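[Meeting: bench + compute handoff]

Bench side (C.D.) handed over the final construct sequence. Compute side (W.E.) agreed to return the predicted structure before the next meeting so the bench team could plan truncations. Sequence as handed over:
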Amino acid sequence: MRIFVTGASGWIGSAVIPELLSAGHHVLGLARSDAAAESVARLGAEAHRGDLGDLDSLRAGAAAADGVIHLGYSHDFTQMEAAARTDLAVIDAIGTALEGTERPFVVAAGVLGLAPGRVATEQDVPDPAGHPRNAGVRTAMGYATRGVRVSSVRFAPTVHGPGDHGFIAILVGIAREKGVSAYIDDGGNRWPAVHRLDAANLVRLAVDAAPAGAALHATAEEGVPTREIAEAIGRGLGLPVVSIPAEQAGEHFGWMGRIFGGDAAASSSATQRLLGWNPTHPGLIADLEAGYYFKK
């Protein structure tokens, strides 16, 4: 198939492209700049110039493809509402272009906030009020009744691996700055995690075979206790590991405190059964022990 990918040069997208190519697909990757276009080309894909605000370009890319993977998103936490509005417009533009074709449309989502205090499953439905992005995912899933084989891949908050600049890298930076590696209260709250290459494999399986309306969980590890994460960071940096009371989490971690203090365990059992997904790459603690998160 010819697959159109938004976010093609990003952290997950740049792993998805080789995964798709290895399965025999042709990839058309959205590129908003010359640097992004060069990155997409180096990976072996064809660059399609445009960005998430260029709906005509998105419609053209979707119309020229046999399927679409939508990974692009603005993760600026100071502009969450604006990012969600853009995402909704993107999803509607692509969904309309695919309507009635029965072509696959894979949409990225997340598991954070899905079922606080218990293990979330693929059957859980995101609360529209939980995160502005949920409205776009809900709209996307509506295209399952409009002749589109749409599915959502809910990613763990930590998609780790060499080169990661996400939440774990941020926690490492905070620990280095503060001189201690901290967790909140008893550190028993859990973070699901997935290696970047396992996540890419699931995205490819989704575009190949996920049924319309499927919600899939990219969580190779159901939930790693945050205390274990802090301890691994402490070992890697040679720093003491301490507990921070919840009321002081904002002062110590900044905006990251609210996220790191959440309990977001999420199972992927149904996803693994449905698509035969079998995560094989190192887990989060093993990746931390490998040392590359601590190299400046």
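W.E. noted at the follow-up: The chain has a mean pLDDT of 94. C.D. will use this when planning the next construct.
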